[in-house]
Each structure stands twice: as C-alpha cells, then as structure tokens.
Design goal:
With 295 residues, the protein is of the alpha/beta class. The protein contains nine helices and ten strands. Belongs to the LysR transcriptional regulatory family.
Length: 295
C-alpha cells in the first residue's frame, strides 16, 4: 500500500467514476476541473495504478479502477457514517458530566437545582465531586470545577469568572446584641492554622482587639454546628448561614470570586455546553443570595 496516498482523493475518484467527466465531477464537488485532474493523477501515481482511461465518451474505469471504486464507495460511506454519528453524539444531551466544587456550594446551592436539570434531560448523569483541590483537565479528572480562585497553570483549562460570593458574621442568639466594636472581645470559631491565608481568616486576624479562637476546625459544617451551639461567632458564606438558621450580624464582610473551570474541548460537546450554560445562568439567578445582598 502506498504510504503517500492522500485519502482525501477518494471522493474525487468516486465523483469522476460516476460522472465520467472532469468538469462534471468538479461541479459536483465544487472545485475546478483542473483540480480533479491533478488530484486523480496524484492518486494514480501514489498507488502505482491506472484508474481511468480517456475515451471519446469520457473517462472510463480500468479493471483496477473498478475494484478501487467498489471498495472506495464502502470506505467513504463508512467514513461519512462515522462523521455523522460523531456529530450526533457531540450534539446529544446524554452521558456523564463531572462537577468538582467545595462542598458548601453543592449542599447549599447546586443540589436544589440539579434535579430540575436532570428531569429536563433524563439521559444526562451529573456527578458531584466535593473537592477543593486542583484538578487536571488535561487528564480529564473533572469536566467542570467551581473554584474560589483561578488555577495557576493548566494549558487545557478554560476559565470563566461567574461573580462573587459573600461571607458575613453569624452567631447564636446569645450574640444578637453584641455591637461591632465589641466583636474582638468575643470568642470566634476559626479555620485551622493551615488555612490562615484565606481571605476570611485574614479578615478575622485584623479584628482589634485580636479575638480568642477557642475552637479551630477544618470543616465548614463543623464551624456551622459550633457556631449554632454557641461556641463563638463565625464568618460564614452568606448562603450557608442563611440555611442554618443562624443570626446574621453583619453585611458581607468578605467577598471571593467564583470561577467556572472546564476543559477547552468542552465547548464542542453538547452535554458540556448545556451544563456550562446552566451553571452560568444558575449563578446569575442566585447572585443576590450568594453574594449576601439579601438576608
């Protein structure tokens, strides 16, 4: 088999075999007759075969050409079927979509809306992966990730800033009458020391006088439960505090950006395009609650 044969020449050979005319084959394919002549000659040279003979009635297939066309029709038909099936698959809203995010975004936001999405698209399967670690889109560890900061480096990632999420001060009823100027004299539930760099913990460190932190945790749900139990005040995502029935004691003290990350190839797949649009629209619809503009 000739290694330098161009498979793109198959439809040209087939068109010439059907029409028997360079000009007619060119019109059928939307190319110049000279292009048909040049490419058919190149195919014959690459195959070291004579595919056509020139007769008064037009171009006629040789015996070798007849075999080529019979097999070529089957091959070309299979390729067309493959392309059509691939296109339909790319446009179909079916299959699995993996979304990675910090757990409070699932528990207090997405899970309330994902049921309606799946009801509209019953062949869609959504996997929610609670994780705030970096994921590799190059290795397809997730299809989408909701993160509070964009990744430092990942050549395969497509980034979209959705907006902001707000954090406010919450407390049990015993803290309802504590004025802002006395916050530093109250106990606070804080994140563990390893998370001292995050914006909400830097905000807490700036309180004066520096408040006691009798309890440090590495779980937001634990922080919420400790705050509800009266262990101390806490800076919590507004959407979380509102759900847990805690008293909101301030406006949004800290805001953090929410980024939607996906693989660059996701824009060409139907189910991924749908989910990306759904997530963006869902954020817009929930913007006020997420950023803490409403109580």
């Amino acid at each position: 088999m000739a290694d330098d044969f161009d498979w793109n020449d198959i439809p040209l050979v087939l068109a010439l075999a059907r029409s028997g005319s360079m000009s007619a084959a060119g019109r059928q394919l939307g190319v110049d007759a000279s292009t048909i002549s040049r490419r058919v000659a190149a195919a014959e040279k690459a195959l070291n075969l004579r595919l056509f003979t020139r007769a008064t009635t037009g171009y006629q297939l040789t015996d070798a050409g007849q075999v080529f066309v019979e097999r070529g029709e089957a091959v070309y038909g299979s390729v067309q079927s493959m392309l059509l099936a691939s296109t339909r698959e790319a446009e179909t809203i079916a299959g699995t979509v993996r979304i990675s995010a910090i757990d409070f975004l699932f528990d207090h936001w997405l899970v309330r809306h994902v049921g309606a999405l799946c009801a509209r698209h019953p062949a869609l399967e959504v996997n929610l992966v609670a994780d705030n670690q970096n994921v590799s889109f190059a290795r397809r560890e997730a299809d989408f990730a909701l993160r509070l900061a964009p990744p430092a480096d990942d050549a395969a990632v497509l980034m979209r800033r959705l907006g902001e999420i707000g954090w406010a001060v919450y407390g049990a009823p015993a803290y309802a009458d504590v004025p802002r100027e006395a916050w530093g004299t109250q106990p606070w539930v804080a994140l563990e020391e390893a998370l001292a760099h995050v914006p909400e913990m830097r905000w807490l460190a700036r309180l004066a006088p520096r408040p006691r932190q009798p309890l440090r945790v590495n779980s937001l749900s634990t922080m919420v439960n400790a705050c509800r139990a009266g262990v101390g005040m806490a800076l919590l995502p507004c959407i979380v505090g509102a759900d847990e029935g805690l008293l909101r004691l301030s406006g949004a003290e800290v805001t953090r950006e929410l980024w939607l990350l996906s693989h660059r190839d996701a824009v060409s797949i139907g189910r991924f395009k749908l989910v990306a649009g759904w997530l963006a629209q869902l954020f817009d619809d929930s913007r006020a609650a997420l950023c803490g503009a409403v109580r």
